[in-house]
């Protein structure tokens, strides 16, 4: 290889490294969870833990915002079960199992409404969660089978892993059009952030 060809290859390699480094370090780590939709609508992504009291406290406000904004805002709930919460992962799988029977939102609601009954326990609350499925009129045998489905557990854990990569360290954590929401996630604060994104 000639000296000029070798020099050209070195220059190309250096430029490539500089460009890659620039792209890496200029990347905003707070925007990895949900890019802004192409149609200009607003997307709110929430990472939550069903056993987390703060998530339960934020829940009514989020439901109110969903009703108020309708199709103008997409709300995407993702699981982030905290390992120290003994039944959080089971509850997340239960939501997905209920979703297989068309009752995902209803299971979210009943688990949050009854969180003081099953949350914070150091023993498995499978029986209580299965009873909630019965209250919702779900097929009990299908629900039990889904609770043991490795694919549903993997879906939950994949969402937690995705959240960790996006910078989630606690729950609830919200991203509005990919930007991490900071501060207490009250109804008013979230509404203000959504209005800003809509403007």
Care to give the gist of this entry?
With 199 residues, the chain is α+β, with helices and mostly antiparallel strands. It has helices at 3-26, 53-69, 88-99, 104-113, 115-118, 126-135, 140-147, 150-165, 187-198, and strands at 42-48, 73-79, 173-176, 179-180.
Topology:
Blueprint: H1 3-26, E1 42-48, H2 53-69, E2 73-79, H3 88-99, H4 104-113, H5 115-118, H6 126-135, H7 140-147, H8 150-165, E3 173-176, E4 179-180, H9 187-198
Parallel strand pairs: 1-2
Antiparallel strand pairs: 1-3, 3-4
Helix pairs in contact: 2-9, 3-4, 3-6, 3-7, 3-8
Number of domains: 1
CATH class: Alpha Beta
CATH architecture: 3-Layer(aba) Sandwich
- Provide the helix percentage: 55-70%
Enumerate the strands of the largest sheet in spatial order, edge to edge or round the barrel. Answer: 2-1-3-4
Envelope shape: globular
**Computed structural class:** alpha+beta
Count of individual beta strands: 4
Question: Which runs of at least 5 residues are low in confidence (pLDDT < 50)?
Answer: 7-38
What distance separates the N and C termini?
Answer: 58 Å
Q: Give the count of helical stretches.
A: 9
> What would the CATH topology be?
Glutaredoxin
Q: Round the Cα radius of gyration to an integer and report it.
A: 22 Å
Strand content: 5-15%
The biggest beta sheet, please? Answer: 4 strands, mixed
Mean pLDDT across all residues, rounded?
A: 86
Order of helices and strands: HEHEHHHHHHEEH
| CATH H level, superfamily name | Glutaredoxin
Keywords:
four-stranded mixed β-sheet, 199 residues, single chain, globular, alpha+beta, Glutaredoxin, 9 helices
